[in-house]
Amino acid sequence: MNSPLPQLPLVDAEIPERCDAARNRKLLLDAAADLVAELGADAVTMEAVAARAGVGKGTVFRRFGNRAGLMNALLDRSERALQQEFMFGPPPLGPDADAIVRLVAFGRARLDMVTVQGEVLRAAEDSRKSRFSSPARAVSLRHLEKLLTDADAGGDGDIELLASALLAPLEASLVLHQMRVLGMSLTRIADGWEDLVRRIARGASGY
């Protein structure tokens, strides 16, 4: 349980990128992110990304394969940024804070991601045949499992299942539904997640 967390795999990591290829990839992802912000993820097409980036449509297909590959590449980029913060960043998200404090900070940071890149996250979730086996989700689960163990918050319970239960309320599809359809504020959702974490901790170890 205390083994180092794996780094998220790069898209096409087995093929080292030349400088120009890396630059083109960033150009395409920036164009896609801008279109998502303007139109919503469902309206973004490979053709629109190519036009925004000023390249041929074939370039986008060669780089990402299909629309699902593009959405997953956008998700990979945002997940990597969060991963760097909770693995190496300062408190309260990083390693030098109390485990329960870090759990709360992780949930709030992931919810903040939904407000900024929620459409990308939702589209990436929806595009996967099995979103529950994605590398990004695996890293988040491992992180939650370790923090629960460090905090002795699992008691005699099943840490793996408890981590899955804590991650479920942070999924973009659910959070966007709560905000857009049910009218819940991000503050309410984040405070509710913190309350859940602290109730689990108190129930297991009198935290």
UniProtKB/TrEMBL annotation:
Residues 22-82 form the HTH tetR-type domain. Gene3D superfamilies: Tetracycline Repressor, domain 2. Residues 45-64 bind DNA. One of its GO terms (molecular function) is transcription cis-regulatory region binding. PROSITE patterns: HTH_TETR_2 (PS50977). Keywords: DNA-binding. Pfam families: TetR_N. The keyword DNA-binding applies. This is TetR/AcrR family transcriptional regulator. It comes from Rhodococcus xishaensis.
